[in-house]
Design a protein that fits this description.
YaeB-like fold; 7 strands; alpha+beta
């Protein structure tokens, strides 16, 4: 199955704020996940999210870039075969989950 990659406007802005070496690693990771963006329990690369403290991120998935200290959060629109990146942010203290939660509310 071929998936289409999409970035939310905010995620595209997140990508622009990264330095060039970080951006390259993020793009490589997203490209790899795009080959099979399904949750890990379905044989894919994404790690499913659910309720993170007060944030309900059910339906979202994450990729971890441990060496860079970044997380990439995305969701799948299965009916359209779209992998939509919602946020790229630091792994610090649930920061990325708060960002995604506020973006999904808007």
């Amino acid at each position: 199955m071929n998936w289409i990659l999409s970035y939310s406007k905010n995620a595209a802005d997140d990508l622009k704020t990264l330095d060039n070496s970080q951006r390259i690693q993020v793009l490589k990771s997203v490209s790899k996940a795009l080959m099979n963006p399904l949750p890990q329990n379905e044989g894919g690369y994404g790690n499913p999210l659910g309720n993170k403290r007060s944030n309900n991120l059910t339906g979202c998935l994450k990729l971890k870039l441990k060496k860079l200290g970044l997380r990439i959060v995305y969701r799948l629109k299965r009916d359209q075969n779209i992998m939509e990146v919602l946020a790229i942010s630091a792994r610090d203290d649930e920061e990325v989950y708060n960002i995604v939660s506020s973006r999904l509310k808007n």
